[in-house]
Amino acid sequence: MDRIMIFDTTLRDGEQSPGAVLNVDEKIEISHLLEQMGVDIIEAGFPISSPGDFRAKGEFRP
What we know:
EC number: 2.3.3.13
Number of strands: 2
Number of helices: 3
Structural class: mainly alpha
Pathway: Amino-acid biosynthesis; L-leucine biosynthesis; L-leucine from 3-methyl-2-oxobutanoate: step 1/4
Protein name: 2-isopropylmalate synthase
Radius of gyration: 12 Å
Order of helices and strands: EHHEH
Helix content: 25-40%
Number of domains: 1
Pfam families: HMGL-like
Largest sheet: 2 strands, parallel
GO biological process, one term: L-leucine biosynthetic process
């Protein structure tokens, strides 16, 4: 049977909404929750685009 994989962009696209800003701790917490829910791929942002994304990149595990 084929398997459906879930690809989540909350941590990247979610911050594109006006007024939506996540700090590093919030991004890490959300990524852990997504992992617990069984999300296969989490797109966490672009480290080159912001200092916060750059700092957070070291906290995520593959």
